[in-house]
Amino acid sequence: MNMVLEHAAKTLSGSGLVTAFLFAGIVFYLAGLLADKLTRGRIHSSAIAIFLGLIAAYIGGLITGGEKGLADIAVFSGLGVLGGSTLRNFTLIAASYGAKMEEIKKCGIAGFLSLFVGIFTAYTTGAIVAVAFGYRDPVSVATIAAGTVTFVVGPITGQTLGASSAVIALSVAAGLIKTVFIMIMTPFVAKRVGITTPRMAMIYGGLVGSTSGVSTGLAATDPALVPYGTMIATFYSGFGCLLCPSILYQLTRMILPG
């Protein structure tokens, strides 16, 4: 029995990326069952999958004492590649396919302005929360605030400004909480606030950002709206990576000289 287990572990470790896809498939399958049986589709399976993934990453960190969750375990090392920036960026780009140019043109200046309103609002909210919890140095406040923009912008801002690993981790946590909240709430509020057309989906994506949250929330609302909301939310992350470590950080330094 031990020899079989050792052979299986060696095989899985030698095909790390395949194992990662298998593990992700199992997680998504379980998330789908939980979404259907426990919430009757009210909460999208992707939100549950993220929650299960966070639990698995926490357990992996406890077991290995490492910093990459399950990816620090040899059998699951492929998760580091599957969850890396390259495949993530391909996914974000692919999600925007299917959007029609004529619908994008209808969004006009409103979609462009929604990006700046959304980023500034999220950053300001995150900065206020950071200060409320006792952070006063501009680098920490800016990093946590950037994490509130998205969990991608937070680490990029923190690494650019030289924030500590603990603060960067907090920024990621803030972004993940926001993402899950958007996933859960979008299907409930979409029709009530008028997110029923491509134009409104783009404005919504610009206001709240979080490509994962917007795409999943809109998928549970109307799959036809996903490419539009996702496309603008992707621009949101890009603008956030430009504005947070530069202009917004300098404004933070002016208010909190440290």
What's the helix and strand layout?
Elements (H helix, E strand, L loop, with lengths): L1 H13 L1 H22 L7 H20 L14 H4 L2 H11 L5 H32 L5 H12 L3 H9 L3 H25 L8 H11 L2 H11 L4 H30 L3
Overall description:
The chain is an all-alpha fold and 258 residues long. The protein has 2 domains: 2-83, no CATH class; 95-255, no CATH class. The chain contains 12 helices and no strands. Helix 6 packs parallel to helix 10, helix 9 runs parallel beside helix 11 (211-221) and helix 10 packs parallel to helix 12 (226-255). The model has no long low-confidence stretch (mean pLDDT 81).
What tags apply to this protein structure?
2 domains; mainly alpha; 258 residues
Largest sheet: none
Terminal-residue CA separation: 61 Å
Share of helix, binned:
over 70%
How many H/I helical runs? 12
The total tally of domains equals 2
Annotation, overall tally of beta strands: 0
Q: Which residues sit in consecutive blocks of at least 5 with pLDDT less than 50? A: none
Global outline: globular
Sheet-strand content, in percent, reads under 5%
Q: Determine Rg (CA atoms, Å).
A: 20 Å
Overall pLDDT confidence: 81
Give the helices and strands as they follow along the chain.
Answer: HHHHHHHHHHHH
Structural class: mainly alpha
A few lines on this structure:
The protein has helices at 2-14, 16-37, 45-64, 79-82, 85-95, 101-132, 138-149, 153-161, 165-189, 198-208, 211-221, 226-255.
